[in-house]
Amino acid sequence: MNKNIKYISGMALALVMLTSLPACHSTKLYKSPEFASEDLFRGYSSDDTTTIANIPWREYFADANLRSLIEQGLANNPDMLIAVTRIQQSEAALSMAKAAYYPSLALVGNVDKTQISNGARGRDILGYAYNTSYMLGLSTSWELDVWGKLNRQSKARYAQLLATHAGRNLVQTNLIANIANAYYSLLALDEQLHVTKETIKLLEESTATMQALKDAGMLNQAAVEQSKALLYNTQISIPTIESQIRELENTISLLSGQMPNGIIRSSIRLQSIPEKLKAGIPVQMLAKRPDVMQAELAFRSAFEMTGVARASFYPNLSLTGMIGFTPASMSGFFSLENIAANIVGNIAQPIFAKKQLKAQYAIAQAQQQEALLTFEKAVVNAGREVSDILFRYESSLTKNELRAKQVESMTKSVEYTHELLKAGEANYTEVLNAEQNLLQSQLGQISDKLEQLQAGVSLYRALGGGVE
């Protein structure tokens, strides 16, 4: 070996650190928090693991127009695109954390020119000599992960990466649900507009009948005017419904990443309502629901960062080294005899850090506890949401038969009161009340179906459906 290659005694320390300390890693491994999920859905307990959340959204939503809107939304919605960029940021952060395992390497160069007095001519500038040294080489440093600090930082970053994926899934499930709910609301408004226009035709006929009866001396002008007032009141609702339709079309366009435009759609009458929505068991929801997964991953990240804070109490071990050329002059710069190298092992044990390390550890522990409580809150909230939707859906289904009977009775009531009015056996107020009640029952029927369609969408989202 060339005699000019220099080794500093710190190399011995580095070898000792490498051979004797790797077993000192902190071995406390992450474990998913336990949570009692019994009766999480409040009375909806079952051993049946069939859940609508396992149905792909392209199969769950049978309406081809709705599927097309969802596809456009997943491809173009700004929130989806933002979620993808967050994943990219987390991937870069994870790569950076993993890179800390490896030594850093840098090209370094130096020119040192020193002025030295030769004592020959007093303080005159001519009495000084110059000593110039050169250096060009590679410098490296490496922090040894003896205590697992870097490993835990990497695990925390990995949990954060998984959380961004869960965040993207959360955006996707919410987006699918929002588009579907808005679409069904649009169909319901279309049907309300249709029913209202049909009612207006009925009221126009009724008003004409009352005018004829008034002309025949069977009714007074008050009956005619009240009939007209009901007609006008119903006509006034048309512009409001049309405005709501236009606004909802713009909302759906925005959700699907399009400019405001008309929406191609079918009819609410063509939408089928399942007799039962299967929720599976709570454990399945905990494994699929993105916000619950996000909350657990946040706890996992906080757990690993607590380990990082704990490892900060232990000595910091590192290696630094350099190899390069250090000639006395530019002549023969890259000659072998000008090669120099050194390697130094460093150890630094914190002794007094103004309580910063203890404070950082206490903060990390508190953040870990906060993340655990947030996770538990997310689980309870998810269970409550599923319970509410299931009860609301089943309650709404019980109204269908009664609502159908109500609409049928009100339709007959309008027919009968018209006949009785013409026969002089009913007064005009009975006719007006029957017509108004018929309209309200028909609108109620539309509202019931919308509630059931949206309950199916909401439960699908609440169980974590829509992620593929």
Describe the model.
This protein is of the alpha+beta class. The chain has 2 domains: 1-27 and 104-144 and 316-349, Outer membrane efflux proteins (OEP) (Single Sheet); 31-101 and 146-313 and 354-462, Outer membrane efflux proteins (OEP) (Up-down Bundle), CATH 1.20.1600.10. The chain has 10 helices and 4 strands. It has helices at 10-20, 57-60, 64-76, 78-99, 149-215, 221-255, 282-288, 290-311, 356-422, 428-462, and strands at residues 104-117, 128-143, 316-325, 339-348. α3 crosses α5, α4 runs antiparallel to α5 and α9 runs antiparallel to α10 (428-462).
Would you kindly provide a brief summary of this structure?
The chain has two domains: about 100 residues, Outer membrane efflux proteins (OEP) (Single Sheet), CATH 2.20.200.10; about 350 residues, Outer membrane efflux proteins (OEP). It has ten helices and four strands.
For the record, the CATH class of the largest domain is: Mainly Alpha
Number of domains in the coordinates? 2
Beta-strand content bin: 5-15%
What is the first-to-last residue Cα distance? 62 Å
The CATH architecture of the largest domain can be named as: Up-down Bundle
Order of helices and strands: HHHHEEHHHHEEHH
Outline? elongated
Task: State the main characteristics.
disordered N terminus; alpha+beta; Outer membrane efflux proteins (OEP); 468 residues; four-stranded antiparallel β-sheet; elongated; 4 strands; 2 domains; single chain
